[in-house]
Amino acid sequence: MSLDKSAVERVAVLARLALDDRQVAACQSELNGILDLVERLQGASVTGVEPLSHPLDIVARLRPDLVTESDQRALFQSIAPAVDSGLYLVPRVIE
Amino acid sequence: MNPRWEAVIGLEIHVQLATRSKLFSGAATAFGAAPNTQACAVDLALPGVLPVLNEAAVRMAIMFGLAIDGEIAPRSVFARKSYFYPDLPKGYQISQFELPIVARGTISIPLPDGGTRSVRVTRAHLEEDAGKSMHDGMSGCSGIDLNRAGTPLIEVVSEPDMRSALEAVAYMRHVHALVRYLGISDGNMQEGSFRCDANVSLRPLGEERLGTRTETKNLNSFRFVELAIEYEIARQQELLERGEKIRQETRLYDSDLNETRPLRSKEEAFDYRYFPDPDLLPVEIQPQWIEDIRRQLPELPHARCERLQHQYSLPKSDAALLTADRALADFFEETAGFPGVDARIAANWIIGELGGALNRFQLELGNSPVGPERLAGLLRRIADHTISGRIAKQVFETMWSGNAGADEIIAAQGLQQVTDAGLIEKLVLEVLAANTDQVEKYRAGKEKVLAFLVGQVMKLSDGKANPRQVSQVLLARLRGRS
Question: What is the pLDDT of residues B151-180, one digit of tens each?
């Protein structure tokens, strides 16, 4: 499986990324590299291999239960396509 | 239900944990904030952010696991549950799949016949909540509030061990009481802190194999759980008796119409594509930490019920009612702790008068206008015979609608019980003189008349005479003149 230029452009639109031609070409080759790797992995035999949940052999450090974030709604919503009364607006999801 | 069928019920309960900050971010979890003011970059899934696990949420999940005698996983992993909905900005929910933090617990629930049923808890895992979508008044759009996104939940999954709607409700109540005792959730159902999905199927009685089940989603009150399960049982029985098949599907309960109906099929065609979240390292829980938490567990409902029976000589039924809710048990113990209060009278009053008044005014215990101290003031005057139980109800009503203490009300309204022997004697003589025919009947052997005569004296005293004294004086008079 590999992605053509138009597929990359479509993904960029969905991800709301503005890419110029040079960046589209770079992304296309990087994404196809990843897909190639996945294809090679599909061929590997995993019989008898214990599933790995994380490649690093360390465990999670836990965070104390403290409120450390303040309200940045105005900043975050400055890049939102549509907002109303503090809500993010999206196409209607029920009929 | 037709006794040929047996209902098989399992519940998935979502419990919102009472942490200050979110499961994976430092944003606040307080209810009722203006939209999106408690949604930080992590909750919004902005590029480049990383989740960091909240220690308190892990501790609360362990507390729950210990309280249901479950196994705490020494190593636990978070997984991504992928689905697309606008209130889930990452496109996946961080949950647990293969290695949940709690497995194999049990919860005992009382059965109507006096026995108990042991309901197995398959697992309880940590996960984050999604945001909220609003569809009304958005001019053709949906509005998204992500304040709730990332709030910690435990999802408690039972085995299909319940056999009726009432058992399911009893189980749900038990889990609710437990999380409130543990202090790990406020259990507020109106605010969505405690909600449940019910899996229901039927099978012919005696059959081992399970029938096809339906899942009814998002039930947010005990009453709705009961009604929705009863509706599903009746619906499935009707289909099966007509020889039709049950479709495995997700349904929604509509409380206005009291019915369940299927979600559209495309909404349930989920493949969640679970896989371990590479952003989160496995969690290791050391035995020492578990032991520390075990030592700090508060007294749980069952143990408290036993203790109340012994410490206060309460009947089991009263102790069970009082300990069903931690706040109620606290209220009782605080009241009974005041000097001069008889604990059994306190239990009766809290269950009876106070409970009735709260019901009538649709108030939660926390909003009761009469608190433990004022109630104790009233109960003390019953115990020392200053007022009778009947007058006490009158004083209680006055307390309910004002701020005065029992003693003030008793003094202001002159409600002290009359124990003056001379006065009682006078009232008795008056009543006997006015009821000579009844007196004759009593002397002819109709002893029930005594109660009538006591009633007449009480009435004459405006309810203030000491009833025991009245009946003693009456008896003496009635017998003395035979």
Answer: 999 999 999 999 999 999 999 999 999 999
Of residues B393, B462, B385, B448, the one with CA closest to residue B419 = B385
Residue B456 is inside which H or E element, if any? helix B449-460
Tell me the residues of chain B between 273 and 292 that have a Cβ less than 8 Å away from chain A. 276, 278, 280-284
Cα–Cα distance for residue pair B446/B116, rounded to 1 Å: 48
Distance from CA of B239 to the nearest CA of A (A): 29
Give the contacts of B244 (CB within 8 A, at least 6 positions apart): none
- Could you tell me which residues come within 8 angstroms of residue B341 by beta carbon, excluding any fewer than 6 positions away? B335, B376, B379, B380, B383
Angle between helices B165-182 and B222-241 (to 10 degrees): 150
Cβ atoms of B441 and B432 closer than 8 Å: no
Residue in the block written with tokens 């070409």: A25
Task: List pLDDT tens digits, range B50-100.
Answer: 999 999 999 999 999 999 999 999 999 999 999 888 999 999 999 999 899
Contact yes or no for B153/B19 (Cβ under 8 A):
no
- ipTM associated with this complex: 0.77
User: Which of B217, B268, B211 shows the shortest CA–CA distance to B245?
Assistant: B211
**B138–A92 C-beta distance less than 8 A:** yes
CB contact under 8 A, B27 and A67: yes
